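Task 17 of the worksheet. Students: predict the tertiary structure of the chain below and write it out as structure tokens. Keep your answer in the requested format; marks are given for formatting as well as content.
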Amino acid sequence: MPILAHAATARGVDRVVVAHHRVDVAQELAGDVSRFGYEPVVVATGREAIFAARASADTTLVLLGARTIRPTPLETVQFLRQQGTGIAPPVLVVVDPLDDDGRGCFLQHLIVKFCDVPGIAIVDRLDSFFAPAIDPKTGAEVAAPRFPDALAQAGGPRAVDPASRAAAAEARLARAREALVLLARMGRRGHDVSGSLRTARSALQDAELRQPALGLLAAIGRAEAQQALHDEAGRGDLPEPTRQPAVSALELSVARHGLLLTSREMLADYAVYNRATDDDTRRAAAKILDVIEAPSRAHRSLSRDAAPARPTR
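Model answer:
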């Protein structure tokens, strides 16, 4: 199950974790690497880099400051390579301009530490690393950025080939879709899949993952999962064909786990229904109320001549 849960975190983008003890440098590195099509996540320590890299199957690169602490860069790399799920991303260990000023041979010691570690490259953060070198007289490009070559050294040629990167991203998205479906199936069979609640809520934002994410939320017997379905079913910015699957998933959740919403949400739904000024909003609220009232209606019999439970007009 952990492998499925990790695969479900993918969104089909190339994600890079940028770890540096100086916030300004980390932000600068994030901006530079984003120009190559990466979505950056900025952290400050080695520990945060490990958790951030493991949090998403889309993590395809780590930029790690050479003076990162808690743990050290070498320990951080070792943890990254032992993550247990997915393929360990290549790591570029970033040396600052004054890290080898002759006082302690810092760079030489760093090279010795990482000489036998695969998937690693030691790089600098000079302007020429991420940007092309420009002739000041003619304005012509005289040298390409060095980043692609360094990445190819650490991650292989496929890491820098645009077609290979696009195909890998699409494959991760397909695996995420399949993983969400399988997790939902396991949840319906009685397995505890509540650990994927946050993943399912995040997947609602992706059009290709929305349907399987709704199914997974319906299979999780927790109030937070039912609340997420309730909120999605009541979104006024969604067209009816898009909102209806959320209503159906909410109905499945209530039928399987009972009503887990609080009285506050239910009172808010009644208020929306009673104060609606247009038919679309009123119909959307009525559908949610039908789902909410289903358990209570199942245990009471109404006279054929009884007044409707909610006003009609």
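Marker's comment: The chain is about 50% helix and 10% strand. The chain has two domains: 2-165, 177-297.
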